[in-house]
């Protein structure tokens, strides 16, 4: 049984003070649900958020990590550094990192493998661009991202893996994939995961949809059989709208 999982992706929003005030508001609204919830925040917010949510079921995640143990990588953050903050998740390969920071399927693969060897679960993002969708290549692109991103991953390590299908054309654009488009791709992702990891391991992987998820469309998306959760950008910045999505 996969438990629905809704994670916020704050991107480069919220200072430490703003994160604390979000947490205070959000805790008042959060009554506990059957849905697992997490907030993936900038590095500087992680410790205060872990502390603020320590008496709740709400989890905290980072948005990136380097694959090396340590070294001369100015500006980067290692797994050991994340582990000491107490986070439970780390986003890997978000399309903004692929587009602006040179993230590739190969670096995504190194990071995912590193995280699957730790107690922090990777949320591996993938999805096609508008050009790729219009060119009829969406399924091919997603399959490649999955195959390369998961190359060398042992099926027994995959239990904590989360996949976020985020069509690039739906991120921050207000243009959501229809529940059918999202469901169709998430079903394809599950089939591909079965090919890569085998049925038993693939069955445990949570598959989220991300891209302009809002309180108004959350239930249509979450009610699709093939979709186990959501990765929410803009609408996770406000405690009321994020709670409304979790309460879909
Ligand atoms: P959005 O972002 O909900 O603002 O479209 C989703 C994401 O980038 O994870």
Nearest-integer average pLDDT: 97
Provide the succession of SSEs: EHEHEHEHHEHHEHHEHEH
Number of helices: 11
State which percent range the strand residues make up.
5-15%
Low-confidence stretches: none
Structure write-up:
The protein is an alpha/beta fold. Helices cover 42% and strands 15% of the residues. The chain contains eleven helices and eight strands. It has helices at 16-29, 43-52, 79-85, 95-100, 105-116, 130-134, 138-149, 179-197, 199-204, 218-222, 239-246, and strands at residues 5-9, 36-40, 59-62, 89-92, 121-126, 162-165, 206-210, 229-232. The chain has an eight-stranded parallel β-barrel with strand order 1-2-3-4-5-6-7-8, surrounded by five helices. Strand 2, helix 2 (43-52) and strand 3 (59-62) form a beta-alpha-beta unit. The longest helix has 19 residues, at 179-197. The chain is globular, with a radius of gyration of 17 Å. The relative contact order is 0.15. The mean pLDDT is 97. The site of 2-phosphoglycolic acid (PGA) has 13 residues, from strand 8. Pathway: Carbohydrate biosynthesis; gluconeogenesis; Carbohydrate degradation; glycolysis; D-glyceraldehyde 3-phosphate from glycerone phosphate: step 1/1. It holds the Pfam family TIM. It comes from Candidatus Allocopromorpha excrementigallinarum.
């Amino acid at each position: 049984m996969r438990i629905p999982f809704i994670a916020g992706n704050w991107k480069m929003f919220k200072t430490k003070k703003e994160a604390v005030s979000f947490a205070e508001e959000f805790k008042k609204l959060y009554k506990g649900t059957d849905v697992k919830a997490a907030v993936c925040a900038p590095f500087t917010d992680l410790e205060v958020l872990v502390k603020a949510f320590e008496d709740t079921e709400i989890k905290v995640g980072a948005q990136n990590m380097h694959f090396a143990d340590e070294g001369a990588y100015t500006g980067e953050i290692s797994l050991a550094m994340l582990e000491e903050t107490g986070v439970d998740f780390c986003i890997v390969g978000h399309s903004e990192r692929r587009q602006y920071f040179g993230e590739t399927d190969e670096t995504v693969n190194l990071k995912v493998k590193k995280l699957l060897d730790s107690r922090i679960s990777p949320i591996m993002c993938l999805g096609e661009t508008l050009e790729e969708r219009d060119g009829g290549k969406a399924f091919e692109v997603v399959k490649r991202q999955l195959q390369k991103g998961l190359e060398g991953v042992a099926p027994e390590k995959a239990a904590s893996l989360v996949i976020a299908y985020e069509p690039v054309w739906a991120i921050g654009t207000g243009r959501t994939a229809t529940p059918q488009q999202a469901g169709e791709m998430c079903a394809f992702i599950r089939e591909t995961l079965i090919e890569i990891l085998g049925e038993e391991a693939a069955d445990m992987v949570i598959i989220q949809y991300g891209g302009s998820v809002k309180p108004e469309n959350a239930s249509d998306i979450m009610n699709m059989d093939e979709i186990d959760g959501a990765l929410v950008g803009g609408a996770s910045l406000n405690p009321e709208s994020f709670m409304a999505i979790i309460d879909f």
